[in-house]
Amino acid sequence: MNRRHTELPFVPKPEHKDYPNVEHLVTPPHGHDARPEVIKPFDNVPRPQLNRLYGSLRTEEGWKDVVDNFAKGTLTTIAATLVQAPVTLGLTASETRLLRWPGAVQLYLVIRSFGMAPTTATFTTAGSIDLYYQDLIGGQTIPLGCLPNNDEINLPNINLLIPTPITDAGALANPIANIQATPTSGATVGTYIWQIAFSYAYLLPTTKPYEVQHVEDLLDAHPGYARSTH
Questions:
Q1: How far apart are CA 107 and CA 158, in angstroms?
Q2: Please, what is the average pLDDT of the chain?
Q3: Domain annotation covers residue 146
Q4: Region 167-194: what's the mean pLDDT?
Q5: In angstroms, rounded to a whole number, what is the distance separating the alpha carbons of residues 180 and 86?
Q6: Is the torsion defined by CA of 27, 46, 204, 51 positive or negative?
Q7: Which terminal residue of the chain, N or C, has fewer Cβ atoms less than 10 Å from its own Cβ?
Q8: What is the domain range of residue 26?
Q9: What is the pLDDT of residue 221?
Q10: Residue 168: what pLDDT?
């Protein structure tokens, strides 16, 4: 009995593929919002446009890397009593005139460094001193730390933006703040030298509060689904 053999055509084995991932990586413009978003198909998505700060080198966030002005002085403590030393800027420059800076509408001072050290030779009783920066323009009080009365304090590379804008550049010729110092009870009093450095931060407002994008542009024309950020 003859058997009839039929050769089947060769069918290549398909390459293994995982299920398609329906999640798309979405990076917010400023990289600060990691919450998932659920978007309906065919909707317009408003994305907030935030104001920006730039420095005297006209680079975005450049105020974090420069020093534009400074102040220095002396301070003598009184036992268990708050004493103040006025902060007057050492440089009077035209950088504070907003007309020089394209698009800027407000100017802010940023504390970039602070240091304080005793000039008194000896201290009979050790203690500590509470230090504050008391702003005279907006009234903010900024803690600068606690200083041992017989030691020094140095705070380099800090970025403490004072949230009150400078509306009158001429006001910077007057004292802009006070350094406040209060020693603990029983601590030996003394005389100290201090210095503080500032940078200028210029506010560049956004031209429109929201940027409206069509959902198909965001999802590559796929139907609506949940997106998650990583």
A1: 18
A2: 80
A3: yes
A4: 91
A5: 9
A6: negative
A7: N
A8: 16-46+210-230
A9: 47
A10: 78
